[in-house]
Amino acid sequence: MNYLMMYTPLGNMLLASESQAGDPAPALYGVWFEDQKHRPDSSDWQESNHHPLLIQAKLQLEEYFAGKRQSFDLPLAKRGTAFQQKVWASLQRIPFNQTRNYRQLAEMLEQPSAVRAVANANGRNPFTLIVPCHRVIGSDGSLTGYAGGLDRKAWLLKHEGLHAEP
Predict the structure, then answer these.
(1) Mean pLDDT on 16-34
(2) Residue 5, strand partner residues
(3) Between the CA atoms of 123, 88, 130 and 41, what dihedral angle is there, to the nearest 10 degrees?
(4) How is 44-84 classified by DSSP, letter by letter?
(5) Is 133 a catalytic residue?
(6) Where are the domains of the chain?
(7) Taking Cα atoms as reference points, which of 65, 42, 86 lies closest to residue 130?
(8) Which of the residues 61, 133, 143, 156 is marked catalytic?
(9) Backbone phi and psi for residue 92, each to the nearest 5 degrees, phi listed first
(10) 3-class secondary-structure state, position 34
(11) What pTM, to 2 d.p., does this model score?
């Protein structure tokens, strides 16, 4: 596994790719804040500050934080269960500057009774910001569950023009 660390206004982020530079179809393995829940152990990964995909991911994240990017165009490794992948795909359809709640996501998946399962899959999203799980809020409009922390979630929503309090 190759990784690159980058500084953001919200702390360091770890970007990882399971591919080697030059692979025909490199894919991003994950993006996490340094202290994020569910972040894998990276102690045996190789730092790669010259990996083209990781550099591209870093540039796109820098553009997001600078207010110049609203969505991401990066190849993502297929990870997780089939249900998790469906949830993560639905997260990618939440537009910048908009939110959805867990019930709405479950309804988007045509599984309205799967609210808790949707919330669990959302929390396991390995592509922080790239797959915008921070845009999911409680049905009452409150900030709920974010593996990167509620303060970061509030900052991200505010960055996108939404009012949010942790």
Answers:
(1) 82
(2) 14
(3) 50
(4) TPEE-TT-HHHHHHHHHHHHHHTT--SS----B---S-HHH
(5) yes
(6) 2-65, 82-159
(7) 65
(8) 133
(9) -70, -15
(10) coil
(11) 0.91
